């Protein structure tokens, strides 16, 4: 057991999907896993372990933001020996050609958080995805005909900015979309020598202001989860 996870030792699989929302963790377990068992109840941040196409796998809610998610990622790696960590989340598009419902594979993650200023001072660290997971996810998404973009994303500490247009500087440098966790996940994965990837579904658009309905989000979300599971488990 760790401070924020009350799973028994060995109860969490080596491969873990990481949605921000604990209810999405429940949805993933109930929709995709065989024999899911609730492994965490601390703070209502539900996590489940079961099997998917015969292989052991877990899903763990992380909460929103780098600060919350890094607590879970840290404890999953150091307390439970997790080796493959794949975030599955929603994101806002920064680019006209990246549409709502599209899938984004985060090759790298910029951040406005201080997590790496604390570590590296004035030197800049570039948090990146595991290439094997990234390549597998890309191949699977292409085979299934999903519109998929691979590139840089922004992991922001702030959902509501005083200046809405602040995103344009990132868009000008080719950043595809914004979410709130990947840079922390990639940094911790590198530190501990484990594999990480972030798979995102575009849920809203900062340029066109388009949004998806809850039903649309659900359908695209399931496609993203299947890509993440198959890539992480080498299926
Ligand atoms: O859909 P999830 O995984 O929660 O991810 C995105 O949604 C939340 C903001 O609404 C942030 O956590 C952001 O990263
Ligand atoms: O605009 C968005 C959408 C999802 N998640 C974010 O962090 N921002």
From TrEMBL:
Gene3D superfamilies: Nucleoside phosphorylase domain
Stored Pfam families: PNP_UDP_1
Broad enzyme group: transferase
Keywords of the record: Glycosyltransferase, Transferase
The enzyme's E.C. designation: 2.4.2.3
UniProt keyword annotation of Transferase present: yes
Matches recorded under InterPro entries: DeoD-type, Nucleoside_phosphorylase_d, Nucleoside_phosphorylase_sf
Name assigned to this protein: Uridine phosphorylase
Alphabetical list of PANTHER family matching this protein: FI09636P-RELATED, URIDINE PHOSPHORYLASE
Entries under HAMAP family matching the protein: Pur_nucleosid_phosp
Signal peptide: none
NCBIfam families assigned: deoD, PRK05819.1
GO molecular function per UniProt: purine-nucleoside phosphorylase activity
Residue stretches making up the Nucleoside phosphorylase domain: 16-222
Catalysed reactions, semicolon-separated: uridine + phosphate = alpha-D-ribose 1-phosphate + uracil
């Amino acid at each position: 057991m760790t401070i924020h996870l009350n799973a028994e030792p060995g109860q969490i699989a080596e491969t873990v999907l990481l949605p921000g929302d604990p209810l999405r963790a429940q949805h993933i377990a109930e929709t995709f896993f065989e024999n899911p068992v609730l492994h965490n109840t601390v703070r209502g941040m539900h996590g489940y372990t079961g099997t998917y196409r015969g292989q052991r796998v877990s899903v763990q809610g992380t909460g929103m933001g780098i600060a919350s998610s890094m607590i879970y990622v840290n404890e999953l790696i150091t307390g439970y020996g997790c080796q493959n960590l794949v975030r599955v989340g929603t994101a806002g598009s920064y680019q006209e050609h990246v549409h709502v419902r599209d899938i984004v594979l985060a090759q790298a993650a910029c951040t406005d958080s201080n997590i790496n200023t604390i570590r590296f001072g004035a030197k800049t660290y570039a948090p990146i995805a595991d290439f094997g997971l990234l390549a597998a996810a890309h191949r699977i998404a292409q085979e299934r005909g999903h519109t998929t973009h691979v590139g840089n994303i922004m992991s922001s500490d702030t959902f509501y900015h005083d200046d809405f247009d602040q995103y344009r500087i990132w868009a000008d440098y080719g950043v595809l979309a914004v979410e709130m966790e990947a840079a922390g996940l990639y940094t911790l994965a590198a530190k501990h020598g484990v594999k990480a990837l972030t798979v995102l579904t575009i849920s809203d658009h900062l340029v066109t202001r388009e949004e998806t309905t809850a039903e649309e989000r659900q359908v695209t979300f399931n496609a993203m989860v299947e890509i993440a599971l198959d890539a992480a488990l080498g299926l």
